[in-house]
Design a protein that fits this description.
Layout (H helix, E strand, L loop, with lengths): L1 H4 L12 H45 L7 E15 L2 E13 L2 H8 L2 H13 L3 H4 L2 H23 L4 E11 L1
Antiparallel strand pairs: 1-2, 2-3
Helix pairs in contact: 4-6
Amino acid sequence: MAKKDQTPPFPDGQAPGKGKLKLIIIIAVAFLLAVGLSVGGTWFFLSKNAKPAESTEHAEAAVPGKKQAVYEILAPAFVVNFNQSGRQRYLQVAVALMGRDQAQMDALREQMPLVRNQLVMLFSSQNFDSLVTPVGKEMLRQQATSSIQELAKKATGQLTVEQVLFTNFVLQ
């Protein structure tokens, strides 16, 4: 009877719960180490990228030859319609002009009816199917930029508009 009360020895010499406890502790330590490395790595890379951005801001402001951008927002937004396969389609575009010289932008503002007319004609001559793609939108923006630059060169004698930007673009 005394032999039945004795527990048989385990082959590895450990009690039955100690192996599982060690495994749980090792998994918990590995998890905490992974979380710590993840947080530390994220902090390192974010703080590393933040410093050069600040220095480039100061470097752009320190460059004497490059003026700060001046924006002229053309309000109201342009709305043109298309007739595609018997179905009426619409395009709404909000446009901003970017230049570097405020005096030249003011001179161009006097020619705003010509600028708006040029853009309306350009937008209404487009194919709806091409404007659905990002490439088509970029091509339209580049066409608008070259068209307005040509008009501004005639009006002011200088390259007044650096870029035409679309601040809102809706197709329906």
